[in-house]
Amino acid sequence: MSVSKAGRLVIGVTAAVLAAVGVASLAGTGRLHKDDPKLPVNLNETLTNEMSDTSSLLGFDLKVRQYLNLWGLQGASLSIMRNDSLLFAKGYGWADTKKRMLPGNILRMASVSKLVTATGIMVLQERGELSLSSTVFGPDGILDDSLYNAAIADPLYYKITVEDLLRHKAGFSKKGGDPMFSTRWIMMQNHWKTVPTQEQLMVVQLKRPLKFEPGTWQDYSNFGYLALSMVIEKVSGMTYEEFIQENVLHPAGCYGFRIGGNYYKDKFPEEVRYYCQKDDQPAEEFNNSGRKVTRCYGGNNVAGLSGAGAWVASTPEIALLVASIDGKPEVPDIISKESVDAMTEYFDDDTYSLGWNDTKPTGEWTRTGTFAGTSALVKYFPDGECWVFITNTSTYKGPALAKFTTALFESLREDYSTKFPKRNLFYAE
After folding, report:
1. How far apart are CA 360 and CA 130, in angstroms?
2. What is the pLDDT of residues 274-294, one digit of tens each?
3. What are residue 293's DSSP bridge partners?
């Protein structure tokens, strides 16, 4: 069995080897400890705020708290990694009523979920089960179900490839409403009394003409990543969540990721409470009940977003996932170098990267996520530092808040990057 030396993370152990050492039952409990392969280590249970003592980083906490106060954020989680070593993981403010934010709290990550989905697609491609050039719709496509084939009104659908979906180049458009955030209107248009399933949403979309020829332009599409979630299910024969847990997250050592729920009553024990900005008005409930709700609890069908935006996780585990797909050797990657290069390849400013929002030729990668009650930013810098910041409060800036969070990162990096203690909090100490 590949047991690490001190200072090296053990991940990606096969089920057969686990069984051989009698620890297969540990699936879902956490990473394996660096010195004892039988001892489970769960980042979300192990890390504490005290482990990221900032006494040597004078003023660091103050700057973060000032940022929370400036934007009216109830709480936030921040993790910082360098060259696949977790240097810092800390919660700020409140996770819930009278509960402090801790590094192990899990939060909605919104469109950061797309990075998870894209990684799943790369895993399937490496196994030869699909190709980025595979067509998705029609009799020769992956989603060749007769129901979908009968619904296609525009022959341009036959041209859509997996890569088009990944790069937001499939021809879908938010003009006229994003299907993933228009549940009420879709229900009214179709005289439906219940929330549409993913299959029903797919049929609704396939009856619409595309806005441009696939591959010729780009328009950010949440629906495209729902389609990728359905591709993963069709190819793997598993549910989307099961496939991602077993083939992406668990091999990376991440066991706290979950598909989130729509309401406070649905939250996981370690999940935070979400807040909207103070002046936000009540919204119509997404299921067309006629009730007014707090926008972050019932305004949108969060669970229905699937691989487009439904995952919740802690910032340390998101950092660990990034370490597993960044091409650096310190944490073994769960995908090949060719897949890492494909996901981070830069073409031009008008081409989305695979899963990432943007990757620059300098080696800077960005992934953002925003909806009611949360704002998330993952920023990977050319020097190997990766900063992950998620709030449990939305602001009037919406997606534009990422620009200000980036400025916070840059200010903190300038003052403190050289002052972080040399350590790796991915290990239990």
Report:
1. 27
2. 999 988 999 999 999 999 999
3. 283
